[in-house]
Amino acid sequence: MDSNDTARTDHNIWPGLTARDPAALRDWLVGLGFTEGIVVEDGGIVQHSEVLWPEGGRVMISSARPDDPHFTTPVGGAMLYVVTDDPGGVHSRAEAAGATFTRPLEDADYGSRGFSILDPEGNSWSFGTYAG
C-alpha cells in the first residue's frame, strides 16, 4: 500500500504509559477531555488502565514497575499526538489544569492548529487538527 493512499482505513494504536502516580495522571487527562476507562489494580499497583479520547483512540496507563521488562516504559519518556477538531477547547482545559506549555496554540505551516504541553509525569502531549 502506498503511504499516500487516501483509501486507507486507520485502526487505533493504543500507546502505553507508566506513571509514578497513575491515578493522578488519569485524573489530569480526564481534565483535558479524556473519559474514564477500566482500571485493573492488584495490591495498590495499577496493572492496567485506560482513558479514552472521545474523538477516537485510548491510552493505557499503568504503575511504573522497573522489575517488569515487558509492559513498562521510562516515566515521562513518551511523546504523544492527539487529533482533535477542537484544539482551542482542549487548550482552555489544559490552562485550567495548570499544564506546562511547550508550544503555544498556533497554526502550523502544514495546515494544522495545535499546541503542546507536558503532563505531571513529564510526557509530552500535542493536540492538533492534523490527522495525516
TrEMBL record:
* UniProt xrefs under Pfam families: Glyoxalase (PF00903)
Span of domain VOC? 8-130
Question: Any idea what this protein is called?
Answer: VOC family protein
Species assigned in the record: Janibacter alittae
List the lineage, top down: Bacteria, Bacillati, Actinomycetota, Actinomycetes, Micrococcales
